[in-house]
Amino acid sequence: MPDTNETDPDQAGTPAAPEVPEDAPAGYPRHWEADVVASDGGIVHLRPILPTDAEHITAFHKQLSDRTRYLRYFGPYPRISPRDLERFTNVDHRKRVALIALLGDEIIAVGRYEGLGDSEPVVSAEVAFVVRDDHQGRGLGSILLEHLAAAARENGLSRFEAEVLVENHQMVRVFRDAGYQVSRAFAEGVLHLEFDIEATAKSLAVRDSREQAAEARSVANVLHPTSVAVIGASTDESKIGHAVLSNLLRANFTGPVYPVNPEARSVRGVRAYGSVTDIPDHVDLAVVAVPASGIDEVMDSCLEKGVKALLVVSSGFADAGDSGTDAERKLVAEARAHGMRVIGPNALGVANLSDDVRLNATLAPDLPGRGRVGFFCQSGALGTAILASAKDRGLGLSTFVSAGNRADVSGNDLLQYWQTDSATDVVLLYLETFGNPRKFGRLARRLARTKPVVAVKSGRYSSPTRLRARSVPIDDASVRALFEQSGVIRVDTLSELFDTALLLSYQPLPRGRRVAVVGNSTALNVLVTDGLLDEDMTVAGDPVDVGAAATPGELAAAVTKAMGAEGADEADSLVVVFVPPIATPGAAYARALREAVADTGKPVAAVFLAVEGVPDELAAPLPDGSPGPGSVPSYASPERAVVALARVARYAEWRSMPVGEFVTPDGIDTDRARELVIRLGSDETRALTDEEAVELLACFGIQVTAFRKVRGADAAVAAADELGYPIALKAVGDRWRHRTDLVGVRLDLGSAAGVRRAFDDLSRLTGGDEVYVQRMAPKGPSCVLEVVEDPSFGSLVSFGLSGMATQLLEDRAFRVVPLSTEDAASLVRAPRAAPLLTGYRGSEPVRLDALEDLALRVGKIAEELPEVRSLALDPVLASPEGAFVTGARVVLGPPPTRDDAGPRRLS
Question: Which uninterrupted H or E stretch holds 866?
C-alpha cells in the first residue's frame, strides 16, 4: 500500500456511517469494538462490519487510488460488483470476519479473513486488508491484523495465509514485522505467506512496542502543540477562561494562542474569534472553559476544525452526578470517534516547561522552574497546591498533567510518554483510582527500570462515592503488591513524595544501604542513627560529631573523610545534620558541604538549618539559575531525611536486580489442562473434588503428597500399609482442615495400631468415620501458596507461612500475574516471617528454589486458566529436601474480564 494522497474525485458526499444499533443482528460480537491509537497519535474506532455498511463500503472503495486497488485486488477493479458487495458485508463473524476502521463518519480501512476449506473445524483462513490512501503510514494495517488474529483465535482458528504482490512492500512489511514466524513461497510475482497466529513472546513484544510508541505520540500531541485555542476565553478576570489564557500568555508560549469568545473582539489584547472554525490556521490543542451545558456546540466546531486534542477544564460532568457522567461519556465517545484525545474534564490543565514549548495551559498562575521531573496528578483541586509546593522546595518539572475526571487520558498514557521522553528523569504520580491496574503494572515495571517512579495512592481506607462508582475497586494489599512488583516507590503523603523526589532529582542512586552520619550535635546524630536502624539501613562507622564550634573547613573535612572511608566502614551515602549556634551564619557551611560532596558519586541528604528543599547555598545551579544535578536537598528533620534516603536505597536495590524472565517450568501441559477445565465445566462456580484437583495440578507439574480418602479403621490401616509408614491421619471437613491447633490431624503414625488409635480419636472428635490417610512429608515450616481473586487484576498469587500469628498480622505477600523468576524469588522472601525459611536461630535452611519453582507453577495456573477463581496449596511443607504439597483446594468459575489481554485498545 503506497504512502500517497491520491484520491478519487467521487469521494465527495460520503454518507454518514451508521451507528451500531442496540438490537444488532444475532451473533454480532460487540466486544470486538475498540478505540485504538494509531502510530501518529490519533484515534481510530474499530468494529465488525454490518450489512448496513454496504453503501459506505462502496464509498470507501471509490476513494481508493487505482494503485491501491491494483495492489489489493491484483487488477484494476474500478467498482465493487453487487455480488462482491453482498459477500463483503454479510459475514458470520466466525468463519468469515470483517472489521472496519472508522474516523468520524468515514470508513478509512477494512480488514477481513475468510476461512479455508469446507470441513469443520476451520483452522486456517486467508487474511487481507486495505487502507485508504490518505491514511496509509499510520499503522492501521498492523492494528487490523492484531484484531483479526484475536478474533480468529477466539473462533478456534490457528493459522493465517495471505497472497501479496511482490511489489506491495508495505503489506509485506506488515506481515514481516508482526512478530509471527512467517513462511513464504513465490510464484509468478505473488508471495504466498503462511503463519501461526498463536500469540508468542515476540508478537506480544511487537504489540507492546507499537502501543507504547502510539500512545506516547498521542500524549506528545497534547504536550507539544504548535497552536492553542482557548474556547471560553473571558474578559472577566474571575472566569477560568481568563485565567488559562493569561497563564498561556504569561508563560510566553512559543506558538500562536487564539482566544475564542463570540462576544468580544479581543481578550488580553489578543484578537478573539467567534468560533474555533473561524481561526484561519490549524489548531492542535483546544482548551475548553465553557459550562458543561455548552459542550455539544464546542465539540461540533472542534470536530469540524480537526483539533488534535481537547483539554477540558470545565466541571459539571461526572463530578456532578449521573447526568454529568452521561455527558462525559458522550464527550469522550465523540472525541475518540473523530481521532481526538481528551484531558479532563474538571482538569487543572497541562504544562510543558521546555524552552521549545513554554506551555502553561493550567489554572495555576505560577509554575516551578524547569527541571527533569514529570508529574501526573488526578486531582484538579490539589494541583495548584502541588505546583506551589514543588516551586517552594526548588523541585523543577519537565511536564505536568492534571487529568481531573480522567475520562480519557490517564496515568498509563503518561507512563508511555515519559518512557521515551529525554527531558524527564523522574516520574511522580498522585493517584486516586486505577483505570487498568494490570496495564499500569506492566508499564510502570518497564519505566522504573530506567527512571524512578514515585507514587501517592490516596483512598487506602476509603474513597469518595463518585470515585468508587467510576473506578476499578482495588484492595490496598493489591496496590502494595503492584507497586513492589513494578519497582514503584510508594509514599503515603505529598510531603513524602517531594522528600523522595528531591533526592532522586539531584543526587545519584546509592550502591547499598551503608550510611555515614556527620553532624554538629551528638543528640541529632542519635536521631539519625535510630531512624536508619528503623528503616533497616546500616550505619557506616561511628557517627561523627564535629561539635558546635566547628568551622566550615572542619565540617567539610569530616564529610570528606566519612565519604572516603574504605573497608567495612565504606559508606554508600551520607546524612549531614547541621544546626549552627545562634548568630552563626550558615551560608559558608552550606557551600563547604556542597563542594565537599560534589565529586563523590554518592547521594547526600542534609538537615541544614531546618530548611526544606534546595536553598541557594546548597544548589549546584544550571545556566538559568535553577538547581541542577549535585544540588543537596535539605529536610526539616532527621527522620524525614532518613526515610527518603531509605526509600531511594530500596529502589536502587530493586533496579540493580537482574530482570526476571517469564519462563515456563518444565513438565507443564497447558493443552491438557484446558481440555480438563472444559470437561469439568466452569459455567458456575464450584469446588473441585480431591481427585479433580490432583489431576489439574499434575498438568502443571505440581504433585500432591500421596493420600487416600477412606471410611473405617480397617480401610485406614489398609491405606497406610499401601502408602508406607509413617503416615498422617486427617479429619474430613472444612471445620477440621487447616486449623492452626491441628486438632483434626494425627502425625507420624508408624504402625497399624497407631493408625487405629488415631482413627478412634478423630472419629470421636468429628462424629464421622471418613478420614484422609497421607504419607508423611519431610518436616519443615508450613507455608501457604494461593491464587486469590481480585476484581481489578483477575488473580494474584499470595504466599505466607502458616500459623495463627501470621494470619492475625496478615503477614502475606502478593504478586500480580504473570510471575517472572524475579517475582517468584521476591515473593517467597517478602513475608516478615520469611527468616524462618533461611536458618533463623540455627534452624536448617529450606530449599527456597523449590518454593520459587512452586510459585512459578501456581502463577502459570493463574495466567493460563482464568477459570481457576481460587486455589490454595495448604499446607506446603518446606524443607532442605524440597517443597511438598500436602493439601490443595481449587475452585473453578466463569473467568473474569481482563482489560490488558488481547490486541491493543484504549480502555
Answer: none
Single-letter code of the amino acid located at 730: K
Q: Which residues pair with 405 in a beta bridge?
A: none
Report the amino acid identity of residue 68: T
Residue pair 488/446 in contact by the 8 Å Cβ criterion: no
Task: Map residue 8 onto helix, strand or coil.
Answer: coil
Distance CA 63, CA 10 (A): 7
- Residue 107 CA to residue 667 CA, distance in Å, equals 48
Q: How far apart are CA 460 and CA 538, in angstroms?
A: 31
pLDDT tens, 147-195?
Answer: 999 999 999 999 999 999 999 989 999 998 998 888 988 888 899 999 9
Residue 716 in contact with residue 723, Cβ under 8 Å?
A: no
How many helices, marked H, and strands, marked E, lie in the chain? 26, 38
DSSP-assigned beta bridge partners for residue 456: 430, 491
Task: Count other C-beta atoms under 10 Å from residue 878's C-beta.
Answer: 27
Q: What is the pLDDT of residue 1?
A: 35
Burial class for 226, CB neighbours closer than 10 Å (0-12, 13-18, 19+): middle
Question: How long is the chain?
Answer: 907
Residue position matching grid coordinates 442496540: 22
The ranges of the chain annotated as CATH 3.40.50.261 are 217-503, 508-656
Distance of CA 737 to the CA centre of its chain: 38
CATH number of 217-503: 3.40.50.261
Gyration radius from the chain CA atoms? 32
Strand partners, 48: 99
Q: Which pTM value belongs to this model?
A: 0.87
Q: Which CATH architecture has domain 661-705+779-907?
A: 2-Layer Sandwich (3.30)
Coarse DSSP helix, strand, coil percentages of the chain, rounded to the nearest 5 percent: 40, 25, 40
Q: What is the pLDDT of residue 579?
A: 83
| DSSP code for 109 | E
Q: Which three cell numbers stand for residue 297?
A: 456546540
Alpha carbon separation from 539 to 315, 642, 663 (Å, rounded): 52, 11, 39
Pairing of strands 370-377, 397-402: parallel
- 301, 278 in Cβ contact below 8 A? no
DSSP β-ladder status, 453-457 and 341-343: unpaired
Dihedral in degrees, nearest 10, Cα atoms 645, 649, 651, 657: 170
Contacts of 737 (CB under 8 A, 6+ apart): 730, 731, 744, 887
Tell me 111's DSSP state: E
The per-residue pLDDT for 293 is: 86
DSSP codes joined into one string, 749-799: E-SHHHHHHHHHHHHHHHS--EEEEEEPPPP--EEEEEEEEETTTEEEEEE
CB 49 within 8 A of CB 88: yes
pLDDT reported for residue 497 = 95
pLDDT in tens, 412-461: 999 999 999 999 999 999 988 777 788 888 899 999 999 999 999 876 55
pLDDT of residue 548: 86
CATH of segment(s) 707-776? 3.30.1490.20
CA distance linking residue 710 with residue 691, whole number of Å: 13
**Computed from CA positions of residues 299, 301, 306, 311, in that sequence, does the dihedral angle turn out positive or negative?**
negative
The H-assigned helical ranges of 401-487 are 411-419, 437-448, 465-470, 476-486
CA-CA distance, 229 to 298, in Å (whole number)?
A: 12
C-alpha cell at 196: 501461526
Helix, coil or strand: residue 161: strand
- Pinpoint the alpha helices (H) of 681-747: 690-698, 713-723
Name residue 693's amino acid.
A
* Backbone phi and psi for residue 722, each to the nearest 5 degrees, phi listed first: -70, -45
Q: Which is nearest to 432 in space by CA: 487, 494, 512?
A: 494
> What CATH architecture is 508-656?
3-Layer(aba) Sandwich (3.40)
Low-confidence ranges of the chain (pLDDT < 70): 1-23, 459-475, 567-568, 581-584, 737-741, 791-794, 805, 897-901
